[in-house]
Automatic annotation (TrEMBL):
<dbReference type="GO" id="GO:0046872">
    <property type="term" value="F:metal ion binding"/>
</dbReference>
<dbReference type="GO" id="GO:0019674">
    <property type="term" value="P:NAD+ metabolic process"/>
</dbReference>
<dbReference type="Pfam" id="PF20143">
    <property type="entry name" value="NAD_kinase_C"/>
</dbReference>
<keyword id="KW-0963">Cytoplasm</keyword>
<dbReference type="GO" id="GO:0006741">
    <property type="term" value="P:NADP+ biosynthetic process"/>
</dbReference>
<comment type="function">
    <text>Involved in the regulation of the intracellular balance of NAD and NADP, and is a key enzyme in the biosynthesis of NADP. Catalyzes specifically the phosphorylation on 2'-hydroxyl of the adenosine moiety of NAD to yield NADP.</text>
</comment>
<feature type="binding site">
    <location>
        <begin position="139"/>
        <end position="140"/>
    </location>
    <ligand>
        <name>NAD(+)</name>
    </ligand>
</feature>
<dbReference type="Pfam" id="PF01513">
    <property type="entry name" value="NAD_kinase"/>
</dbReference>
<feature type="binding site">
    <location>
        <position position="75"/>
    </location>
    <ligand>
        <name>NAD(+)</name>
    </ligand>
</feature>
<feature type="binding site">
    <location>
        <begin position="180"/>
        <end position="185"/>
    </location>
    <ligand>
        <name>NAD(+)</name>
    </ligand>
</feature>
<dbReference type="GO" id="GO:0003951">
    <property type="term" value="F:NAD+ kinase activity"/>
</dbReference>
<keyword id="KW-0808">Transferase</keyword>
<dbReference type="GO" id="GO:0051287">
    <property type="term" value="F:NAD binding"/>
</dbReference>
<keyword id="KW-0067">ATP-binding</keyword>
<feature type="active site" description="Proton acceptor">
    <location>
        <position position="70"/>
    </location>
</feature>
<keyword id="KW-0521">NADP</keyword>
<dbReference type="InterPro" id="IPR017438">
    <property type="entry name" value="ATP-NAD_kinase_N"/>
</dbReference>
Amino acid sequence: MGMVGTVGLVLHPQRDSKKAIDTILRWAADKGATVLGLPEEVGRIDCTAVPVDADALVERADLLVGLGGDGTMLRTMRLLAGRPTPILGVNLGKLGFLAEIDVDELAGTLSAIDDHRYTIEPRMAIKSRLGGTDVTAFNDIALVRIPGEGLAAIAVTPAGSDFVRFAADAVIVATSTGSTAYSFSAGGPIVSPRVEAVLVVPAAAHSSFNRALVLPADEEVTLEVLPTSGRLAVEVDGAVVAHLCPGDTVTVAAWPGAAKVVRLGTTFYERARRKLRVDGSAEAL
């Protein structure tokens, strides 16, 4: 008996997903499976997917399919955080790290998953509490300077030990998944998603010490906005969700294995080489 009786859809807000959705609907019709989607997303496309709210989508789906790119996959992972439901990423545009397949491979991939011919790559998240609201990120939580309001002056305290103070454009707390995103652009290391670690990376630090910290998943890290800091924006996976002022603190903790991403053979290193155009030194070629 196949494992997929209900497929849930999460769509990119702008990219054309009609071909992918039609492929999923045809596959589901042949298998007698149900296809669900969020009303505001499937409502803009002429299709027979059943509109349900986010809670029903998460509760009922045996497989969640993110149609878009890495941003859509991050949103899908946050929807399912803490649940064992597998997530398949389908690339609809630029090559990403999280999407596993292109649209032309979709029907065969759904059948492979239905036949249990796939592996799961657990993805760690990080979580915090901002203004009384719990937030979860699969890439990063960043404290970012607001133009015209001064630098981000932040004390970093891992596991209760005062360690370093940065004056920078931003201080980024990233997962291994996020090591190839904002953290990477700030000079942080590339870390395999199999490594459950928390990275703390300053962006454009005004200091002779500008190194990233790599912390184990069982240690919390607290960021304190210092009196010399300007007002800061807090970005969660790239979206501004709050602002902080001097004296405010944010504590970030790891959430190991918070999402389960479907893999069918590609490796992180293959995706990283293509996406980041890793060629190495010319002298070594």
